[in-house]
Amino acid sequence: MSATTTGAARGTRRRGIPSLSSLSSGNLGSVLERNMRVIRNQNWVILVSGFFEPVLYLLAMGLGMGALVGSVTGPGGRPVEYAAYIAPALLATSAMNGAIYDSTWNVFFKLRLSKLYQSMLQTSLGPLDVALGEILMALFRGLLYALGFLGVIAVLGLVTSWWALLMVPAAVLIAFGFAALGMGVTSYLTTFQQMDLINFVLLPMFLFSATLYPIGVYPEWIQWLIMGMPLWHGVELMRQLSVGHFDGLTWVHSLYFVGMTVLGLALTTLRLRKLFLR
């Protein structure tokens, strides 16, 4: 029996199917501890810098242009102030920015310059431990941004329902999806010039994902393209939670990020294994 089991395991390895034990040592805590020590010793101004961009957009567009726009149609067809309309969208953007920064630029430095992951994987740690540790730290940044931004819109009187508290866990879900996929994509990039492609993708996605105006202003064929973008799903999910309007699409938006997270985590784990555990 043991010989048969051993032969099956060897056959599995030859076919390239990794076992769970080869992907994780169950020592995720050591990765998180190391990252928390880095955060404790680094400049906190850098950590929170990405928080201010959506706040400035809210002040300039929501309060400034909002005085000219007035009310717009929100979830469920109810009218809402323009500032209250774009605030949830900017919260989704804030979660995205926090997760993407940690899962791309920070990961690129550790992967290509400091060779940190290569060193970590020479220990008992597995690629899944490293991937989860980095992604969870990106979630921490996204959570900080979500809490801070929710506090800002609450002070401005743009929170109209207790359901808006659910925007915080929703922001974590959005951050999880972007962080997992962002780290996986970054593993394929080898130069700083290629890293510029990330901003090339993020800026149009922010501008055209119905963050500042309804998706209905576009022709129908463009609407379908936008509905494939992850930020649009985050924006729509946040808007529904902000006013407590729920329908079948609420689950669609949520499951979109669950799938995005699973895909990104699998991609990142297998890429780290391929790069450093040949």
E-strand count: 2
Unreliable parts? 1-15
Q: Estimate nothing, just give the exact number of structural domains.
A: 1
Order of strands, main sheet, comes to 1-2
Summary of the model, kept short:
With about 280 residues, the protein is mostly helical. The protein has one domain. The chain has 13 helices and two strands; from the N terminus they run H-H-H-H-H-E-E-H-H-H-H-H-H-H-H.
What features would you highlight for this structure?
278 residues; mainly alpha; two-stranded antiparallel ribbon; 13 helices; 2 strands; disordered N terminus
Describe this structure as you would to a colleague.
The structure is a single chain. By secondary structure, the chain is mainly alpha-helical. The chain has one domain. The protein contains 13 helices and two strands, in the order αααααββαααααααα. Strand 1 (71-73) and strand 2 form a beta hairpin. The longest helix is centred in the middle third of the chain and has 32 residues, at 82-113.
List the helices and strands and how they pair.
Layout: H1 2-14, H2 20-23, H3 28-41, H4 44-48, H5 52-69, E1 71-73, E2 79-81, H6 82-113, H7 116-120, H8 127-155, H9 167-186, H10 192-208, H11 220-226, H12 230-243, H13 248-276
Helix pairs in contact: 3-8, 5-6, 6-8, 6-9, 6-12, 8-9, 8-13, 9-12, 9-13, 12-13
